[in-house]
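Changelog note: in this version the structure field was regenerated for every chain. One regenerated record is shown below for reference.
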Amino acid sequence: MQQVARSNIRLQTFVLLAGVLLMGIKFLAWRATHSNTILSDALESIVNVVAGAFALYSLVLAAKPRDREHPYGHGKVEFLSAGFEGGLVVLAGGLIIWRAVQGFISPQQLHDLDLGMALTAAAGGLNLIMGLVLKRRGARAHSITMEASGTHLLSDAWSTAAMLLGLVAIRITGLVWLDNLFALLFAGYIIVTGLRVLRRSVAGIMDEADAGQAARVIAVLEKHRKPAWVDVHNFRMIKYGPVLHIDCHVTLPWYHSLKQAHREIAELENVVNREVGRTVELFIHMDPCIPSSCAICQLEGCPERKTAFQRRIPWTSESVLDNRKHRL
């Protein structure tokens, strides 16, 4: 895991340095053209650099091992990083709108559009490549910080592409006011993107249930369930960076020895960690079965069975999240 963290930090460092270079290129393009559309792209590059620096800091902090003050690790900082980036994106969108409105009030003559478009296109292409790499790495490493950075860079690349189309239209038609109109449209797109990133980070900080991830873990348990695992209930899951923390109750035969019950729980934990594809920490409370459990228990040869087995209850989000033993 530490090797993955170091690799993520190296990649984010490269992205940060590249972001500084791209910011310089975009401001050079704005300086050459005096285009508010290009300026909007350049202003967002400031956000890219600041957010990239904070993302690098959060990855370094998240990689630190657990300590006495942080028994669950430092992974939560990734949600703060994503929220900070989302907030900066929204702020950049507001600045772009202000600049575009000023442009409508006091129009400026555009010049050297060809040079500005060439520089901006080169910067946008590099953002596209870095955004795709960060999104892919973030998804593989379960890092919301890297996914947020990738999403931001991709939105920057797509807005750059749309901006270039707008500049081509200005170049053909000569309608300078289109520059400010396109800047407003790009600002709206940027603000929506920032709000989405901000929403996801708030959900993580508030430990909002990830229904999709929970369903995937429950499906793994259902696929590999053993007859001795009578039921799983009161299932809850939260994220700390790339690590999933799950606590739940597992009903086992009441007559199992402590050693035998521990062996069953250890096997359940191994199944989850092997099949889910990421680090999962489970805190499992063992419950003894009760007479009403017999009707759903598939354990053959049970010496304490009170009633015959009647029906298997599938483990789904509906049944496993409920805080009570399963029964007919």
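Spot check on this record: The beta strands are 231-240, 243-252, 280-288. The chain has nine helices and three strands.
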